[in-house]
Amino acid sequence: MARPTEHGGSAVVIDDLHITYRVNLERKNTLKNFLVKGARGQQVNYREVKALRGVSFDVPKGQCTGIIGANGAGKSTLMRAVAGILPPTEGRIEIRGKVSTLLALGVGFNTALTGRENVLLGGMAAGLTRAGVKERFEEIADFADLGDFIDMPMRTYSSGMFSRLAFSVAVHMEPDILIIDEALSAGDAQFKERAAQKMASLIDAAGTMLLVSHALQTIQDLSDEVIWLHKGRLIKRGNPKEMCNAYLEFLKVGDDKIIMEDF
Ligand SMILES: Nc1ncnc2c1ncn2[C@@H]1O[C@H](COP(=O)(O)OP(=O)(O)OP(=O)(O)O)[C@@H](O)[C@H]1O
What we know:
By secondary structure, the chain is of the alpha/beta class. Helix content is 40%, strand content 25%. The protein contains ten helices and nine strands. Adenosine-5'-triphosphate binds at residues 21, 23, 49, 51, 69, 71-77. This is ABC transporter ATP-binding protein.
């Protein structure tokens, strides 16, 4: 049973989240090198990248929360953490419901298998029964619109085709929480249009969404609230138009001071 907290209406609660990547700087990143260095008492050379530094916010149920920020701000890291792919280095993520994400599904696809087989596996990985996936299969395949390619190994897919299938599987899982990271850039113009329509209908169906995009118009059109990340920190959260305007102003000026004044 959900713990009664002050975040009663939240689908996701993120509390003081830190994520630090540990990057191995060794030229020879091999087990042998690691063991040889260990045996000689030498240190293996690591560098730490603090991708998220104490981020806290909650995602209200049934709303779309947009995430914006410059390259390297930590947006994808945050999405991977909410999807359960990356464990928090420090802090806490509480998820109330079934999460579906393009990231996790894309990662889970086995390119030696056909699209059809991957839909089955992906659906089951997302918590559906075999019968449940079969019931939805036609709709998923129709939406991805890959023609005969659905029965071809996925290694023969273009990256756009890969994304279309991943997107289609993700949005047909009826998740409680849907994570979309730049999904609208998946596929060609026609698919983008259909993807946007599908997302609008998902939002109407009151699903909770986390949406990461550099397309600020899309963010404004779809989000109820926007979070602005910069260098691993949450700078501001609030009304989509105001957040996007503030971010655009920052991009124009290109100066961290504009952020730090309010921070
Ligand atoms: N696998 C990784 N190993 C080490 N460092 C990483 C890894 N992935 C991301 N980083 C670093 O973490 C920081 C945040 O990266 P992240 O991809 O989350 O940013 P982003 O906001 O999604 O950026 P973009 O808009 O460019 O996609 C960056 O400094 C990046 O270099």
